[in-house]
Amino acid sequence: MYRLSARQIIGIALLSAIFAAASVMVFTRLSGHFQPSSAAFTEAMPSGVTDPALATDEQNNIEVYKAISPGVVSIKSTSYRQDMFGQVEEGQGSGSGSVIDEQGHILTNYHVVEGAEKLTASLGGGKTYPARVIGGDPDTDLAVIKVDAPREALTIIPLGDSDRLVVGQKVLAIGNPFGFDRTLTTGVISGLQRPIRARNDRPIEGAIQTDASINPGNSGGPLLNSHGQMIGINSQIISPSKGSAGVGFAIPVSIAKRVVPELIKNGVVSRPKFGISSYDVKYLQGQVDLPVSEGVMIRQIAPNSSAAAAGLRGLKQTAEGDVILGDIIVAIDGEKVSERDDLFHILDKHKVGDVVKVDVFRDNRRMTIPVRLLDAPDARRGIRR
Predict the structure, then answer these.
(1) Tell me, what CATH number does 284's domain have?
(2) How does pLDDT run across 11-66, given as a tens digit for each residue?
(3) Euclidean distance between the first and final Cα of the chain, in Å?
(4) Among all residues, which ones are annotated catalytic?
(5) Residue 321 domain boundaries
(6) Are 357 and 350 spatial neighbours (Cβ–Cβ below 8 Å)?
(7) pTM of the complete model
(8) Cα separation, 314 vs 325, whole angstroms
(9) Rounded to 5 degrees, what are φ and ψ at 9?
(10) pLDDT in tens, 231-260
């Protein structure tokens, strides 16, 4: 057995401490090169914003606007299409966005940049830069664009926590309604966990409802808490008049935190899909004699999709003109499927590559079909799952 003196023990301890410190420094430096894009997000409260508990409401409005508005971007989009006479028509669109990192990435709504062939982003003060789309996710109506602007021109908007919001909490919205740059409106959170839909009809869960005025052009801009942190991305309004009626909705920033790193890395979000378009059985009652009163009937199947590979069947017409009904999905892994939204909820619990057991009715007979989930090309083909 070796015996160590007190001096030797102290020496070993010092060497161990030095080695540990050096290891931490090396790991820290290396990790800076391999951290995911989300590591660039900041959640720190912006400087210049007094603790809301110590400031008047007016002071808070002024300070948050002063600190955050330079990071709110005015986005202009241009698209082109041919009319029936072959003439090229130019379409213009506008929206808002938020600078989220030092690389010039800007978070906005997918519908703000959808179909755009040319994009520009105004950072204020006459600073307008060409922008390009980095990635988009129609399922959550979120997109990331990028400008190559100098660091000093970028004001980064910190991300807050949308999982701890309460009804009645003060919020501020900054955007570009009707082309008026960096307009501030204030209000409260009117409701939480509101179901809204993206333009592709996919449900977006947990939306934030607010009475802060949101108008056309606000889309993609930040909904902020009183500390100046973004807690939502303003996305939709309910208004027969097409203007603010005090019922606006924002996508929770918690969704953006999950989606944005993948958009920056891959341009798309890898999400398992069946690759089908479908009908809810409940809406077909009285029109077609069906073996069940609830479920999802497959209308069309995308080539090279999960459903196609598994041998699921859609509607088809015989040479004689008879229509053969598609498979009716009634359960996935034993979980009941009553309507299309149930497909979204169930598939969102899985990842690409998983195999699920799908219960269907085919020719009035119930059967179970294993389906390996793929990231089907339905989004590119305009077919919804």
Answers:
(1) 2.30.42.10
(2) 444 445 544 444 444 433 433 333 334 446 888 888 899 999 999 999 999 999 99
(3) 70
(4) 111, 141, 219
(5) 276-381
(6) no
(7) 0.79
(8) 7
(9) -65, -45
(10) 999 999 887 766 677 799 999 999 999 999
